[in-house]
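Subject: for your reference before the review

Hello V.,

The reviewers asked for a structural picture of the protein, and I figured it would be easier to keep everything in one thread rather than splitting it across files. Below is the amino acid sequence we used in the manuscript, unchanged from the supplementary table.
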Amino acid sequence: MMINKKRSTWALLALAISAFAIGTTEFISVGLLPLISQDLHITVTTAGMTVSLYALGVMFGAPILTSLTSNMSRKTLLLWIMVVFIAGNALAASANAISVLLIARVISALAHGVFMSIGATIAADLVPENRRASAIAIMFTGLTVATVTGVPFGTFIGQQFGWRFAFIIIVAIGIIAFIANSFLVPSDLRKAARTTFRDQIKLVTNGRLLLVFIMTALGYGGTFVVFTYLSPLLQEVTGFKAGTVALILLVYGIAIAIGNTVGGRLANRNPIHALFYMFFIQAIVLVVLTFTAPFKLAGLITIMLMGLFAFMNVPGLQVYVVILAERYVPSAVDVASAINIAAFNAGIAIGAYLGGVITDSIGLIHTGWIGGVMVFAAVILTGWSRTLENKGENKKSEEVAS
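And here is what came back from the structure prediction:
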């Protein structure tokens, strides 16, 4: 399906607005945890479940709902995703109990999972083949902007007007995205390739791919042991005022965006090689944070380095999964991407849960080194995967020589 350039640009803008709304929702709780715990009279750890349960919702929603909805018209599905998203956040804004807030978060997460799976496919279909990567990048700009501004903006709004108001703002952005998708995204998008549960089983039972999914969960998730509780850590351990925390989160978001861009370039040539060093440095940074967190300047520098490496691994992990899927299960490359998105969110869920347990039992200060141990486990698995890759290349060279 081809549409003219101007119309495709407007359609990509509509997708970017949707990605911004969905990206903001995922991490907005991070900055609001102290406010939610205070207002609902619950511990910060219980409030932290708004992050871990959301991640679990995305984790199960991405591969399962993508399979179940693959016969639907893409535009109809896109509009339904935004309806579910708006409903979930409206429920969160009206929640007076943690149970209602958690249900609301899971509803929003299911929309997020499917959007991440189909958004990139729709973006790629709007343009000629030679502009596909750029189209996907435009859609993901919405996510990057959400990562940079969503958490600090949500934190600032929450501190000024209450945490519920932050969710009301997201509902408003969701409504704008729904209207933009209605008018700007064409109706004649091609249907997605039928994804089957058999393909998903093939992917998760392939040793090489399974290794990468576990690397993704541990390497990406280790940072979330700290990141989920970054607001209380900055206030209680480092001693920053609540207003300053919103500003720090904004700079942290900028560090994430820079890291993501650099990570994409580093992973272009040899993703597995680049990932090994990214994970290794992040593991060290997280361990160092345990010692620098009580000091404002040293703690701040370490946290910015943590932000720089937090999402640097994302492009490399996605590219490497696609390379392996094309090699081992070529019929299910799209599903491999969806499962890796599930693995990212499994990591967030594990990290957020583990961070809560640590905060409750031995204290916030220990989230750093334990997150570091989790990332170091990914370093070992990445080293293993790199060895297997080298063996495969040596074997190929020997076959060519003989």
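For the response letter, the relevant points are probably these. The mean pLDDT is 86. The longest helix spans residues 5-39.

Happy to draft the paragraph if you're swamped.

O.
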